Amino acid sequence: MQSRLETLDHIGIAVRNLEDAKKMFSDTLGLVLIREQELPERGLKIAFLSAGSTTVELLEGIEPDSSVAKFVEQRGPGIHHLCFEVDGIDRVMRELTDSGVRFVDATPRLGSEGKPIAFIHPKSTLGVLIELIEK
Ligand code: ZN
């Protein structure tokens, strides 16, 4: 069988306020800020911090109807998703779909790094939202 999910690329954490969260994760916890970005089409502001072999992605919903804002509203801030690298996102999506896994995205779309991404529906993965990113 060819590989499916590979390395953990990043852990997504939903926050209420990106500035406060950045301070906590960089000044207090000591992770190094790599980049930040506003994604108005997704109603999001995000920041990536280096955590050695992986990365932490902080996400603030800047529109009340964005999925991250709704997540924080319903559950409070906390771990939002795990993102794994895959080699051949179309193939992996096809194989997982054939295995009964449901996706949020029917086809891959471009993520903030310009690489194809897709989200698996958390109902398929024990309540954990999983993002796939082409490596
Ligand atoms: Zn992510």
Termini separation comes to 19 Å
Unreliable spans: none
Work out the number of β strands: 8
Helix-and-strand structural type:
alpha+beta
Rg to the nearest angstrom? 15 Å
Oligomer: single chain
The H-level CATH homologous superfamily, spelled out, is 2,3-Dihydroxybiphenyl 1,2-Dioxygenase, domain 1
Question: What is the fold-level CATH name, i.e. the topology?
Answer: 2,3-Dihydroxybiphenyl 1,2-Dioxygenase, domain 1
| Distinct ligands | zinc ion
Q: In the CATH hierarchy, what is the architecture at level 2? A: Roll
The tally of structural domains comes to 1
H/E element sequence: EHEEEHEHEEE
* Count of helix runs: 3
In helices, the fraction of residues equals 10-25%
Walk me through the topology:
Elements: E1 8-15, H1 18-28, E2 32-39, E3 44-51, E4 54-61, H2 67-75, E5 78-86, H3 89-98, E6 109-110, E7 116-120, E8 130-134
Parallel strand pairs: 1-4, 5-8
Antiparallel strand pairs: 1-5, 2-3, 3-4, 6-7, 7-8
Residues 10, 12, 57, 81, 83, 131 line the site of zinc ion (ZN).
